[in-house]
Design brief:
This protein has 79 residues and is mostly helical. Helix content is 67%, strand content 0%. It is built from four helices and no strands. Helix 1 runs parallel beside helix 3 (50-58).
């Protein structure tokens, strides 16, 4: 799998997770925010295996996502 295919796969998974959050009432969540939350758990420069990325995206819970967004807001980082 080349980088383009990997990026498309990750983007698709993040869109799917954002749509899941929309269904339960979190209508303003974007795929980019999902990826920022998930990738925040990786060390800088680390390239985790695909199975870990898929698992991290699909198992992301709303509470973990909202905690990430709240901490980011307190730090003043752009989401």
């Amino acid at each position: 799998m080349d980088d383009r295919e990997l990026n498309e796969t990750i983007e698709s998974l993040c869109r799917s997770k954002a749509e899941e959050f929309h269904l339960i009432g979190y209508e303003h969540v974007t795929a980019e925010e999902i990826w920022q939350c998930v990738s925040n758990g990786y060390r800088q420069g680390e390239e985790p295996p695909l199975y870990r990325i898929v698992n991290d995206i699909l198992s992301l819970k709303v509470t973990a996502f909202m905690n990430f967004m709240t901490i980011s807001a307190f730090k003043g980082t752009a989401f």
